[in-house]
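Recap quiz, item 2
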Amino acid sequence: MKFATKAIHTGNEPNLKEGGSGDVVVPIHLSTTFARAKVDRPTAGYEYSRSGNPTREALEKNLAALENGKYAFAFSSGLAAMTNILLLLKQGDHLLSIDDVYGGSRRLFTKVFGDFGLEFTFADFCQGKEILPHLTKNTKVIWIESPTNPLLKIIDIASVAETARAKGILTVVDNTFASPYFQKPLDLGADIVIHSMTKYIGGHSDCVAGGVVVRDEQLSVRLKFLQNAVGAILSPFDSYQILKGIKTLSLRMKRHEENALKIVDFLSRQPKVKKIYYPGLSTHPNYDIAKKQMTGASGMLSFELDTDLALSVKFLESLKIIAVAESLGVVESLIEHPASMTHASIPAEDRAKIGLSDTLIRLSVGIEDADDLIADITQALEGI
Ligand SMILES: *Cc1c(COP(=O)(O)O)cnc(C)c1O
């Protein structure tokens, strides 16, 4: 099946067996426990909802299919999903991360797992050979976001994964910004894909959720064990919400990209806009890699105004349709100021080091009418 068909049908198959109800929408199974006729045999494979729940399982099956993976696991947030990946490691292990990783990921690495003896290095790399100087004999994981947040850098996933694999190192890709509609890291050689499903996959700003997808059976066994042993599972209701969101994922992603292209075109003609970061722009430094590994550039873009911090803030606060808010990848357009919002937890000197300036603005383009979004940006620009 093709992507849009899988998004709607995989995991959502109606139960047409004798006694099945034929629901075309997966029921929300709220039961925490499952009764048995035989003491030593769960009735339909379910024992207790932390270890397995039919609604969550439907979502996990669907998510695995979207990423061309085999096994998926749903968690109560993107960070809970990442925590389960980090728990694959042990004291003394080293993780190499791309430098402008999501602020919450960096916080989880250094301020939580750092205290448990994991070592972290943050570096700027694009190709596999560029990771070599940063590897130690204890490096177990390379952590990539592509596009990155908020500078929309592109990392050559196939090249990094190939170099890592040759050294027995796992490649993890946070695919939140591209969504599986535009990029499938497992097809590019990555071992683990993680998602904040709060963003594009859920898409409606009404559910915090995380997901992990793998192909390798051995990894899946350990992850399933950890999901149950640690317990940060996604609830049945939230699993239903995400499954519902996924049904329109392909339509939404197309529109996000279409609108982003129109806004980028508009911004590129504004004298008050100094710089635009968008992987769908042919002037993006890694446009060729983006074209090779993505089928579209999605709806995330950043830009710098040719002004100071105070007027950048004034611009943001003058917007009427576009909401100033954290989060991204949802139907409504959201705009934010990384230095004071999403990336405020990164020390100022580290922000400067990775090129994250105080006038940088990140825009998550929604699926409203692009003309209205452009009119809103126009009136806010006029005020500065
Ligand atoms: C939001 C986000 C996360 C964290 O996910 P939560 O669902 O908020 O826990 C991780 N990575 C990226 C790229 C994100 O945008």
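The CA atoms of residues 60 and 218 lie 17 Å apart.
The first strand starts at residue 71 and ends at 75.
End of item.
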